[in-house]
Amino acid sequence: MRNVEADMVATAFTETFLRSQVMDFTSLCVFSDYKAFSYKKPSFRRANLAAFILPFDRIVWLCGVIVVCFVSCLFCWNGNRDSIFKSKLESCWFTIGAALQQGSPLSPGSCSGRVLAASLWCTMVTLAAVYSGNLTACLAVSNLNTPFTTFADLTQQNEYQMGMIGGSVNESLFGEGELEPYRTIGRRIYAAEATDPSVLSRDVAAHLKR
Questions:
Q1: Which end of the chain is more exposed for a tag (fewer CB within 10 A), N or C?
Q2: Pairwise pLDDT comparison (24 vs 143), residue with the higher score
Q3: Domain map of the chain by residue range?
Q4: Which CATH number fits domain 51-140: 1.10.287, 3.40.50, 1.10.3470, 1.20.1740?
Q5: Can the peptide bond before residue 181 be classed as cis, meaning omega within 30 degrees of 0?
Q6: What is the pLDDT of residue 82?
Q7: Who has greater pLDDT, 140 or 55?
Q8: 48-78 b/e (C-beta count within 10 Å ≥ 16 → b)
Q9: Which residues, including other chains, have CB under 8 Å from residue 55's CB and lie 6 or more apart?
Q10: Is the separation of the CB atoms in 189 and 174 below 8 Å?
């Protein structure tokens, strides 16, 4: 104790190859070691004016517009049999009203026109039900997708800046290791240290604050 030296230490100390050259380690009977990473929760901020288009994907919206245009063309082509539609504009207006579930005082007179109108109504009622459910879910709970789940996923992104506690065994693992993806992560951290030394700070609170 006078020479500020110790012959035995009882503490949680990670064993590495370099440390094993100068000291002996005794492991516990039951011991488990794991590594994990913490990341800043991404913020999803979207304009409220565009919230009505979130329940459906762009392809679904595009298919809906194509269906309305296609059915309108069929009603226009079938207008010669349906005397109820006096013009092509009325047949198009009937299709748009059915798509928006507003109804129409007009109704196709031919059998083919009625089958087409019934099919359109069933399709639009189904889409409206799915749209209402998805819109409620989008406005109630925002989905949080984990940006990465493994160290390999961490090397394939450039959005998050990586860092670790300096002077720890992790610095030896990522800095001196030859296995992937640890070597790639170590190179990125040391490259970022040139402009931001805090990525290898020894203070845990400094990393959590970032």
A1: N
A2: 24
A3: 51-140, 145-210
A4: 1.10.287
A5: yes
A6: 55
A7: 55
A8: eeeeeeebbeeeeeeebeebbeebbebbbeb
A9: 130, 131, 133, 134, 135, 137, 138
A10: yes
